[in-house]
User: Which sequence fits this backbone?
């Protein structure tokens, strides 16, 4: 059957048989560092993402201390923060820098690169049945651009004037005038350079993902048989290709304003009583360009998490996903709508109110596909034989935080309400639940679920459950109270609010409580780190198909080499959600099992006219023609099982 | 009859497909600039000036380079090596000519006191966004054109080494697509500027 591989595919998947044979001769550097294997690149993204997550989390703990305990003596942080602590107090401008870097790191480096980078890379080839990405080289380049960007962003934390401090949205004029803030000098320049590389990396990645999904699917893997994970990664990449270039344009104009004396975003402005003679620029222009990326970006962060959740919830409810087509439809609707709602971030920026009402209308429409998805998760869970793996816990957690955070989005989408709530902690609560927590839960769910495929071992379930409950309770304790503070008008990005009597009396206890809850949540992440690292080396060996799942990655060897499948790539005969099919012998039928092997469970439309009428002969013939692929796969499955049994005995 | 045999999904050459996606992302960059241009222009305080007349010449040169590119492509398909080499060299030369012309256009702007940057503190003719936008649009296009020239260069070298012919068309196909795109992009930018100036 190898002969049917179309030539195009051969000359692209360089990885193919050639590399495969020579795998053992690969140098350490080519295999682990400058690797073109999508699985290695995925792991590189995962490790980088985890590193950034801990760093971003640490930054937030520092500014939470300031918010929760404004009178606290922070001298003990001096060894780390140096001159940013003066007389036991955190430097106010450094506070802003911390908030900015926290946001940038979490949104871009953790939840975009860490999430899409890991799972799109890891799962796309494995789940569509491809040997590797369309271009392994560009894929490798994508990671190293990200790495370069990371190095620059990280370095900016340590320079004398401090990192960028104008908020993760870096609005001009604050970001455009080096004299506006300490962080608007060198720190801001490095931010822009780092983001430029980040965008290049992200574009290379997205182009590769789209090309691979469209062109390298295995036999039988039609779009209507793609797992929802792949649909989600695919649409995420489409959003990325369309929106990141716009951020690039915005950043380029900002660079010109900063360093070449143009005035795209700057108009007549006074700093320290001195007039700067910029003419004719418009800061609003920047906001339009930024949010044209910014809003799609929040879906770039969320969609992969939703895709991962769809897969895990269906697998562990042992039920077909409810509304497969509705899920795809709503993701497509979200993709389109995410481009036409950006100005809901600008209701109070001087946007024309009529335009505001159009954007309000479009924004509220996006709640519909979001609600469809939430509904479908719940109905999939409904009366399922739920298996509470750690991945499943985090997926259910995602559904919960997605709903809690999504509901407040509907409130914010109304411009009349948003005028009151904009730039208060209400917005902070909204996006930390719906974006921060939901995507983080998706990331964690994915790590626990695909860890066996990534590292050939299992993570510890008990520690996982503790991690889940600590995190789940923790994020609600942290972010739920923020709604109340926001409704009371408590502004975001303020270094200190104790000057305002009302808030001081009403909310000092509450902010202190939030800080303690944040510390508590952080502790559980350390537990995760322990579990993660320990399991890579010492975890129980993974069986072939630990979650009894239908998708193709579980037919590849437990530790797949470069090229993923030994011998032929399995063909696909059915959608990925044949769980608990009535009449079937087991409660799952993987995608590579042909319909003619499961006559007992086939539905009426799955029996092909040819096969019914003309009886056994044809079916038998087909079997012979095809006998190769399925048997090889089955053998491997058995080998995998034996492996496990052996290693279990040893331990 | 293999009625149960699953179908190989429809697919295109992955590299060519990726090139189209790359083109889409470039289109988005220019869509951002040109819509920013329109939004900013609508706000007033917009310096009006004449477009450099040399744009007409450079446009003609670039369109001509597309024609020679296409000729090189046809020749390659018919294994006419002389035509291929000549076509590629002409395309490269015309591409360079275009860049020289764009440089002249910038010089013309400077002579008219239309500057890219500079505010009233240090310049008697402070830059207005209308001028700066013109520099950005032409500059970013020129930057991509340089990348196109590098691509052309690679294919030209390959053509002289007889590595491009009717059985090995992928690279020249992609090169032609990209070069035509850069041409179309410039013509659209020029029309856009003519209409919105
Ligand atoms: C039900 C759908 C949603 C609606 C109607 C909605 C609406 C809004 C609105 C109107 C704002 C602006 C608030 C303000 O700044 O005054 C906002 C902020 C935000 N939303 Fe949503 N949202 C929704 C879902 C989401 C999702 C799914 C995500 C991410 C995955 C998200 C992430 C964010 C972020 C990050 C911000 C704050 C950005 C900032 O100012 O720093 N939202 N949302
Ligand atoms: Cu938004």
Assistant:
């Amino acid at each position: 059957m190898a002969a049917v591989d179309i030539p195009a595919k051969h000359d692209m998947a360089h990885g193919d048989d050639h590399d495969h044979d020579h795998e053992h001769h690969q140098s350490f550097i080519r295999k682990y560092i400058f690797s073109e294997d999508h699985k290695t690149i995925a792991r590189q993204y995962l490790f980088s993402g985890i590193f950034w997550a801990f760093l971003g989390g640490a930054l937030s703990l520092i500014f939470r201390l300031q918010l929760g305990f404004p009178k606290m003596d922070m001298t003990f942080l001096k060894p780390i923060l140096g001159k940013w602590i003066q007389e036991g107090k955190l430097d106010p401008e450094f506070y802003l820098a911390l908030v900015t870097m926290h946001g940038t790191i979490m949104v871009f480096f953790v939840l975009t690169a860490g999430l899409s980078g890991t799972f799109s890379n890891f799962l796309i080839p494995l789940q569509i049945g491809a040997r590797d990405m369309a271009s392994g080289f560009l894929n490798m380049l994508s990671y190293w651009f990200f790495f370069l960007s990371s190095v620059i962003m990280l370095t900016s934390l340590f320079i004398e004037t401090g990192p960028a401090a104008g908020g993760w949205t870096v609005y001009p004029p604050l970001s455009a005038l080096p004299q506006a803030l300490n962080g608007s000098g060198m720190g801001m320049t490095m931010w822009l350079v780092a983001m430029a590389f980040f965008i290049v990396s992200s574009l290379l990645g997205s182009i590769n993902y789209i090309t691979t999904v469209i062109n390298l699917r295995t036999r039988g893997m039609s779009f209507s048989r793609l797992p929802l994970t792949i649909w989600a990664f695919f649409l995420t990449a489409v959003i990325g290709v369309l929106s990141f270039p716009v951020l690039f344009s915005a950043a380029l104009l900002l660079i010109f304003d900063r360093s070449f004396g143009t005035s795209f975003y700057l108009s007549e402005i006074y700093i320290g009583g001195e007039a700067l003679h910029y003419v004719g620029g418009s800061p609003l222009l920047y906001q339009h360009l930024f949010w044209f990326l910014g809003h799609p970006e929040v879906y770039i962060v969320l969609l992969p998490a939703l895709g991962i959740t769809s897969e895990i919830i269906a697998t562990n409810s042992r039920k077909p996903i409810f509304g497969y087509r509705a899920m795809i439809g709503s993701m497509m609707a979200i993709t389109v709508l995410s481009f036409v709602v950006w100005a809901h971030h600008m209701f109070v920026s001087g946007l024309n109110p009529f335009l505001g009402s159009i954007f309000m209308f479009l924004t509220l429409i996006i709640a519909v596909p979001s609600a469809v998805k939430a509904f479908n998760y719940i109905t999939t869970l409904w009366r399922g034989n739920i298996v509470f793996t750690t991945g499943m816990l985090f997926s259910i957690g995602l559904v919960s935080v997605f709903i809690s955070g999504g509901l407040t989005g509907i409130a914010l989408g109304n411009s009349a309400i948003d005028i009151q709530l904009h730039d208060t902690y209400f917005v902070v609560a909204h996006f930390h639940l719906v974006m921060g927590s939901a995507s983080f839960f998706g990331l964690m769910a994915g790590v626990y679920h695909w860890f066996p495929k990534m590292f050939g071992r299992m993570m510890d379930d008990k520690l996982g459950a503790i991690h889940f409950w600590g995190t789940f309770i923790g994020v609600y304790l942290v972010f739920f109270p923020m709604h109340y503070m926001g409704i009371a008008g408590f502004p975001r990005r303020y270094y200190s609010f104790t000057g305002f009597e009302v808030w001081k009396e009403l909310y000092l206890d509450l902010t202190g409580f939030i800080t303690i809850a944040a510390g508590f949540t952080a502790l559980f992440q350390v537990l995760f780190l322990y579990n993660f690292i320990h399991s890579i080396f010492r975890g129980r060996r993974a069986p072939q198909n630990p979650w009894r799942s239908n998708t193709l990655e579980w037919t590849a060897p437990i530790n797949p080499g470069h090229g993923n499948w030994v011998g032929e790539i399995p063909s696909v005969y059915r959608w990925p959600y044949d769980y608990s099919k009535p009449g079937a012998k087991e409660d799952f039928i993987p995608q590579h099992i042909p319909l003619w092997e499961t006559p007992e469970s086939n539905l009426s439309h799955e029996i092909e006219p040819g096969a019914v009428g003309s009886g056994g002969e044809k079916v038998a013939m087909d079997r012979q023609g095809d006998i190769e692929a399925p048997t090889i796969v089955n053998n491997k499955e058995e080998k995998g099982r034996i492996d496990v049994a052996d290693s279990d005995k040893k331990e | 009859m293999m009625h149960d045999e699953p179908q190989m999904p429809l697919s295109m050459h992955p590299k060519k497909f990726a090139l189209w996606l790359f083109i889409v992302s470039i289109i988005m960059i220019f869509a951002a600039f040109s819509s920013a241009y329109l939004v900013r222009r609508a706000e007033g305080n917009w310096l009006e000036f004449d477009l450099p007349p040399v744009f007409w010449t450079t446009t003609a040169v670039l369109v001509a380079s597309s024609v020679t590119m296409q000729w090189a492509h046809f020749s390659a398909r018919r294994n006419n090596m002389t035509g291929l080499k000549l076509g590629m060299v002409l395309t490269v030369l015309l591409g360079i000519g275009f860049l020289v012309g764009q440089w002249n256009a910038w010089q013309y702007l400077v002579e008219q006191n239309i500057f890219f940057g500079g505010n009233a503190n240090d310049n008697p003719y402070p830059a207005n966004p209308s001028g700066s936008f013109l520099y950005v649009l032409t500059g970013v296009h020129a930057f991509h054109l340089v990348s196109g020239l590098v691509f052309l260069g690679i294919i030209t070298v390959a053509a002289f080494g007889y590595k491009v012919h009717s059985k090995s068309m992928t690279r020249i196909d992609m090169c032609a697509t990209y070069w035509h795109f850069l041409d179309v992009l410039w013509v659209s930018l020029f029309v856009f500027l003519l209409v919105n100036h």
